[in-house]
UniProtKB/TrEMBL annotation:
It comes from Phaffia rhodozyma. Its main location: nucleus. Pfam families: Spindle_Spc25 (PF08234). This is Kinetochore protein SPC25. Residues 1-37 are annotated as: Disordered. GO terms for biological process: cell division; chromosome segregation. Gene3D superfamilies: Chromosome segregation protein Spc25 (3.30.457.50). PANTHER family: KINETOCHORE PROTEIN SPC25 (PTHR14281:SF0), KINETOCHORE PROTEIN SPC25-RELATED (PTHR14281). The lineage of its organism: Eukaryota, Fungi, Dikarya, Basidiomycota, Agaricomycotina. Residues 190-259 form the Chromosome segregation protein Spc25 C-terminal domain.
Length: 263
């Protein structure tokens, strides 16, 4: 305000200069700032008061808007800072959770890798075992074929042998019947371990008369269970049989003893 009042135009200074000064174009004299009449600006006229009031009101409104803007920006900044901090916290929590999840995932992957390696090892072992079993199966199949051929050969040989044995038995049976009829000798199995031996053609008076004995073979020592007719020499003949184990000679001795008894 002081600077404005010092530069304001005062009417008294223009009057003091006079028309001659202005007309001549000479510079008016410098006002005396020490004069109190020059520093006093009238402020009591209505237009000035109105403009001052409006200016002050506008200034107050500007200041108020500035304060509100400052407060708004401060609150906005604080809100944005809080949101940024909250977002940062959530991001850090998400990163921590992701790190933990990554650790668990790595553990799962490692375990799965270990399981896969174990399964692959098991599969390799099974393939090796399968290959071994297949080789064994091929070898056993080949061996089975060889044995099958041998069994068929043995079966054919056995069939041929049985056929020949049957022919031989039939021939022996015929010869035996012929000899039995000629010699009057017949042997039959009784129970499990006994033989019934019968002789005929020993008595001149009765060729059909039967001389028989039942011999027990159930133990190492031969025993005679029954004999008809009785022979006094039987104990000696039986003792000789148990000593020399010659059954053929025993039959010859028994037949001769029966023949002596018949005569």
């Amino acid at each position: 305000m002081a600077l404005s009042s010092s530069l304001a135009y005062h009417p008294s200074s223009a009057a003091l200069a006079g028309p001659s000064s202005l007309a001549s174009g000479s510079r008016p004299p410098h006002p005396n700032l020490a004069d109190p009449t020059l520093t006093q600006i009238p402020t009591n006229f209505p237009p000035f008061q109105q403009q001052s009031t409006q200016f002050l009101a506008a200034l107050d409104a500007f200041v108020l808007r500035g304060k509100e803007e400052i407060i708004f920006r401060k609150e906005t900044r604080e809100r944005l800072v809080k949101e940024a901090e909250e977002q940062k916290r959530r991001m850090e929590e998400g990163i921590d959770e992701a790190s933990r999840g990554e650790g668990k995932l790595l553990e799962i992957l490692e375990k799965e890798a270990s399981d896969v390696a174990e399964v692959q090892t098991t599969i390799s072992d099974l393939k090796l075992n399968l290959s071994t079993l297949e080789s064994q199966e091929r070898a056993q199949t080949a061996e089975l074929k060889e044995w099958t051929v041998k069994v068929e050969q043995l079966r054919a040989e056995k069939t041929l042998r049985l056929s020949k044995e049957a022919e031989i038995r039939a021939s022996i049976s015929r010869d035996l019947r012929t000899l039995e009829n000629a010699l009057g000798f017949k042997v039959e199995g009784v129970d499990t371990d006994k033989l019934l031996i019968r002789f005929t053609n020993l008595s001149p008076d009765d060729p059909s008369k039967v001389f028989s004995l039942l011999i027990d073979l159930s133990s190492r020592l031969y025993k005679v269970s029954s004999i008809s007719p009785p022979l006094p020499s039987l104990p000696y003949i039986l003792e000789t049989l148990n000593q020399d184990r010659d059954f053929h000679q025993f039959l010859r001795r028994i037949r001769k003893a029966f023949q002596i008894e018949a005569n």
